[in-house]
User: Fold Calreticulin from Coccomyxa subellipsoidea.
Amino acid sequence: MAVNGKLLLLSIATIALPCAIGKVHLEERFDESWTERWQPSTWKAEENLAGKFEHTAGDWYGHPEADKGIKTTPDARFYTIWTELEEEFVNKGKDLVLQFSVKHAQNIDCGGGYIKLLPTSSKDKMPDFGGDTPYSVMFGPDICGSTKKVHAILTDKKGRNLEFKPTVPAKTDELTHVYTYILHPNNTYQILIDNEVDRNGTLYEAHDFLLPRQIQDPDAKKPEDWVDEAQIPDPADVKPDDWEQPETILDPEASQPEDWDVEEDGEWEAPRIPNPAYKGEWQPKMIDNPAYKGEWEHPLIDNPEFEDDEEVYLLPPLKFVGFELWQVKSGTIFDNILVTDDVEYAARFAEETWGASKDKEKEMLDAVRAEEEKKRKEEDAAAKAAAKDADDGDDDNDDEADDDAAEGNIDFGDEDEDDEGLHAEL
Ligand SMILES: *[C@@H]1O[C@H](CO)[C@@H](O)[C@H](O)[C@H]1NC(C)=O
Ligand SMILES: *[C@@H]1O[C@H](CO)[C@@H](O)[C@H](O)[C@H]1NC(C)=O
Assistant:
């Protein structure tokens, strides 16, 4: 089915597009046969913390069958599942595209939504695929509280997971979004969201692949006689003769009070006030230092530990794709995973699977929300009417009724509630 779909697409595309037919290593649309290809991992199973994936299109979609994907369930679990590429993918000299769609139908507040591409060398670890299994690319949205970002972590040749430094915000709504990661053999990358370039750049800038080419010479020291004072006090400057003045003086305006009794109060003295002629401590003026040599600059040397790598894009041979996620609130639906070296095919695939569905999906979500709003209002009205009936001027009853109505509201968002009824009405 996948192959037919592709052939059909390509034959249409030849009319409009120059044909760049590459290799599709994985094209997963999650039809009914998906369980023949995907394996749950044993990771976290013993601790009863392993979640499941359920085959569903959710409560809003463009097409009830074609838009079926796999949904995380139940809440607060580790969800781990994986599959194999048709053939090992060696990306030397080739573009690498990793693409999939994510629908956070649960209105996610905390949970991963990323996919991992793993090397052939992880083969033995795949049955227990989990957080520690070595991967090559980890790509996609991650949302928790104020963190709402798209990861694009690459594992370098030494096995280090190199964070993606630019900030690419993740989509946080309840609709399907397509995330595309492209690695080019000229050591650049592109991230597309919903088939449009969101970010591009060089891998050298986006990740700490290489150590600095130069470092400060550890053997170099600032010479002891180095003069780095730009200014000095002027040796020719002298303190004016009249500089020194007392800080305070006797108040010349004060006079001895008339009722002053020398016998009793002692000799009268005028109070002291600040001396207007006082100039503070004398400082010679500053002049440019004739011996000044400038700031000492630490000499640089070539970093002996620097290792160049002109092929940081080059990953080990790739063989597996999987999800390894933790979510507080489950309900994310993943679909339409593609691994290929054909950038244009990926764009067409996104258009066919997501582009053609997105307006209908949005309409359906709006209808679901409108229906919920209508029911909520009806319940509110019913609760108010009931409260009024029971109310003989007793305020307490009113409050209780309002509380009930408010609780009814919250329950309404639960997607398990009366699914069939909702659909039938749409
Ligand atoms: C790298 O290759 C891609 C794909 O061929 C191209 O679009 C991009 O402009 C290139 N970037 C640089 C910096 O050469
Ligand atoms: C990023 O995209 C812009 C616009 O297409 C292009 O000019 C630039 O070369 C790209 N940068 C890299 C590093 O490929």
Helices lie at 2-16, 203-206, 262-265, 343-355, 358-390, 395-412, 419-425. Residues 188, 200-202 surround 2-acetamido-2-deoxy-beta-D-glucopyranose (ligand 2) (CB under 6 Å).
